[in-house]
Write a structure and sequence with these properties.
Largest sheet: 9 strands, mixed
Distance between the termini: 36 Å
Structural class: alpha/beta
Number of helices: 7
Radius of gyration: 17 Å
Number of strands: 9
Order of helices and strands: EEEEHEHHEHEHEHEH
Strand order of the largest sheet: 1-2-3-5-4-6-7-8-9
């Protein structure tokens, strides 16, 4: 049986568990998994929605982050005061293989192409481990996926590729330019799935991607237009945010995370008492 341990750093807010050295048979590599439990855990008989987040080493602990952590634990603590709670699973990237794993599409000179194997790792290895160890609500309506940059790309791909598993998605400053906009075409030609989608960018994102014809911001805007054309309604099942002066970094994503999670995890109907949080 998997042995989840307390996270070793005292500076981390909340109840954080770690499962070390998890093997991925799909990718033939290993990484730790991190799970942040809700502030009201344990509460007998209750099950929580689950949010799977990419770049897990950047979420909870500044000491392990690339350029400052996202403050996920602090954000979840604050949201819990409005009865918005979830189990958050952080899946660290593997460094040199990050671009390969975070795109199902290959970009010459930059990688990609292992996104489907990574998604299968999440669905068939990570999710069963989490569901077996913690009081999750495994329904798709209560299962979300979120990431930034390339992590945003793979998260939106996951929603449309595996709508049987995911019903919530956050794509922050997504790298839709990667592989010459292949994800834009994929979503454009894939049937609409019932979901709640949060999408954002900043006005000071990298202004020009030399590998493609457009900027990060305009590619996010194009995706928002595609989603609206598919029938997603702004404020109901879609939220698109453009942050004035927002840059492409952890500080910007930390700043926008509370709004993203309020939209994704807020009340939305009869499941809210057992799966999605109440306000």
């Amino acid at each position: 049986m998997a042995q989840w341990m307390e996270y070793p750093r005292e500076a981390v807010t909340g109840t954080l568990r770690v499962l070390q050295d998890v093997h991925s048979p799909q990718l033939d590599n290993r990484r730790d998994l991190l799970v942040l439990l809700p502030p009201s855990w344990p509460e007998e008989g209750r099950r929580w929605p689950v949010l799977y987040m990419q770049d897990g080493q950047n979420l909870f602990d500044a000491a392990t982050s690339f350029a400052g952590d996202w403050g996920v634990a602090e954000t979840m603590e604050e949201l819990s005061r409005k009865e918005i709670e979830a189990i958050v699973v952080g899946i660290p990237n593997t460094g040199s293989q990050r671009l390969d794993e975070y795109s199902p599409f290959h970009h010459p000179g930059h990688g990609g192409g292992k996104g489907d194997a990574y998604l299968e790792f999440l669905v068939s290895t990570v999710k069963p481990l989490v569901d077996a160890a913690f009081p999750t609500d495994p329904a798709r309506e209560a299962t979300g996926i979120l990431g930034s940059s390339m992590g945003g790309l793979i998260s939106l791909y996951a929603l449309f590729r595996r709508p049987d598993v995911f019903g919530l998605c956050g794509a922050m400053s997504p790298a839709f330019w990667f592989a010459h906009g292949a994800l834009l075409d994929f979503v454009r030609h894939t049937p609409k799935v019932p979901a709640r989608i949060y999408l954002d960018t900043g006005t000071r994102e990298m202004p020009r991607i030399r590998f493609w014809r457009t900027s990060r911001r305009s590619s996010a805007s194009e995706m928002a237009a595609i989603l609206r054309h598919k029938g997603y309604v702004e404020g109901t099942d879609l939220r698109y945010v453009v942050e004035k002066e927002g840059e492409h970094n952890e500080g910007a994503w930390r700043r926008r995370l509370p709004g993203a999670l309020r939209f994704l995890l807020g009340p939305r109907g009869p499941r809210q008492t057992t799966a999605l949080a109440r306000e």
